[in-house]
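Re: [ENG-882] Designed sequences occasionally contain unexpected residues at chain ends

Forwarding the minimal case from QA. Structure tokens:
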């Protein structure tokens, strides 16, 4: 994990090895069609689409709590065991945020085989996908040396939905179309070697972990690291339609408030392989 190209921030260091157990990850980000079904079934207000349209575009304007509630609902729909226990009546003593108005106490049952958010380690493993070595079958493997989550070292707006304006050229990007909005999931048809679409750009994706800038110095050699036990912010990964190439790198760590909603952030589902 971490800044293997030596071009990021201190929070991406030190580069270190971790082990992750087998898991599934959604081929695409959760769409408006999928999330709207959840809202209809539970009687909650549907998030705004910024006027860009719904359907197969990735859902936006969802905070971390919306994401874990959706995970539990999808688990129930598919007759799986919900991973999260959500207590909205008790303030989480491990949440130090000054801005989070919810601070629900959310606990995780890692033994439950239901949908959840990926850990930061799982997300980065899947984003850094490279083709399988010769003779080891088709497909890909995770955790390789690659800059972006679509398996490329160059950010090309024909292959990624990011901020490709000329004044953001970083030496590893192509200047071109700046869409300034989401695109339907998978529509750029550039999955990485594991078959995952839009792991770079389109929308940021919530992860399970609390954020700690110094966590990588503590997690070296860990198996299934899931982040610190407390914090003020939650991790999100992958960049968005509005992000420059620097922030779309597989190693970049973003850390918004867990109650933050916006036009640039959505989610992708994970499922433990048991």
């Amino acid at each position: 994990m971490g800044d293997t190209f030596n071009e990021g921030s201190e929070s991406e260091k030190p580069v270190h090895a971790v082990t992750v157990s087998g898991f599934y990850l959604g081929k695409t980000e959760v769409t408006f069609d999928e999330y709207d079904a959840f809202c209809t079934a539970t009687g909650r207000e549907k998030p705004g689409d910024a006027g860009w349209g719904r359907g197969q575009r990735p859902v936006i304007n969802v905070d971390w709590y919306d994401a874990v509630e959706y995970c539990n609902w999808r688990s129930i729909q598919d007759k799986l065991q919900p991973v999260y226990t959500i207590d909205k009546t008790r303030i989480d003593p491990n949440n130090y945020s000054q801005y989070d108005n919810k601070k629900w106490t959310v606990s995780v049952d890692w033994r439950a085989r239901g949908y959840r958010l990926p850990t930061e380690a799982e997300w980065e493993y899947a984003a850094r996908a490279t083709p399988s070595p010769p003779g080891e079958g088709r497909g890909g493997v995770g955790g390789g040396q690659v800059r972006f989550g679509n398996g490329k070292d160059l950010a090309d707006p024909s292959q990624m939905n990011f901020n490709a304006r000329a004044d953001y050229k970083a030496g590893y990007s192509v200047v071109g179309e700046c869409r300034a909005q989401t695109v339907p999931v998978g529509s750029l048809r550039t999955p990485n070697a594991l078959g995952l679409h839009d792991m770079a750009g389109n929308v940021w994706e919530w992860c399970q972990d609390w954020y700690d800038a110094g966590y990588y110095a503590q997690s070296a050699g860990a198996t299934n690291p899931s982040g610190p036990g407390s914090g003020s912010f939650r991790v999100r990964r992958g960049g968005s339609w509005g992000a420059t190439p620097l922030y779309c790198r597989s190693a970049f760590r973003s850390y918004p408030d867990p109650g933050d909603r916006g036009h640039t952030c959505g989610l992708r589902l994970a499922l433990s392989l048991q």
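QA comment: On inspection the terminal residues look reasonable. Helices lie at 32-42, 64-77, 120-127, 216-219, 245-248. Proposing we downgrade this to a documentation issue.
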